[in-house]
Every structure is written in structure tokens, then in C-alpha cells.
Amino acid sequence: METRVAIIGIIISNPEQVGKLNAVLHEYGEYIIGRMGIPYRQKGIHIISVAIDAPQNIINALSGKIGRLDGISAKTAYSDVITKPE
Hints:
Layout: E1 3-12, H1 18-27, E2 32-40, E3 45-54, H2 56-67, E4 72-83
Antiparallel strand pairs: 1-3, 1-4, 2-3
């Protein structure tokens, strides 16, 4: 199955959901290239970016699960980098 590189941008406004977010990210850990988190204390939010290389349906599933968490929003940006199966 072909894979695609993407970035999922996550904004957390409800810190009580962080445990659930980490559980979802762990579930898809085999596809995650890396992640970076930035606390924005002045605004009371946290910003996380997750780089992922996965099939399109996996990226959509992960982004959807994250976006359904209360107090967390997620948007995905896709690259043109697509890897065909060998």
C-alpha cells in the first residue's frame, strides 16, 4: 500500500484530554516520524505537530480520532511525497 508524508497540527485547549491524546498517538506510533510540542502558557494552550508517513486511510483515521477528543482540534497538511509499495 502506498504511503504519504503529512503533518498533523494539534491544538489542546483542554489539558484533561492529554492522556487520551497520547493513547491515540501511541496506537499509531509505528507510522509517526516525530512530534514536537510547544506549551503556550500565556494563552493556556499546547501546540503539537506530528509528522507521519502512512497510508492515506491511516492518516485520516488518526486525524479524525484526535479531532473527536473534547477540547482538541487537529488539521492535516499533506506533502507531495508518496511512496509506492515495492
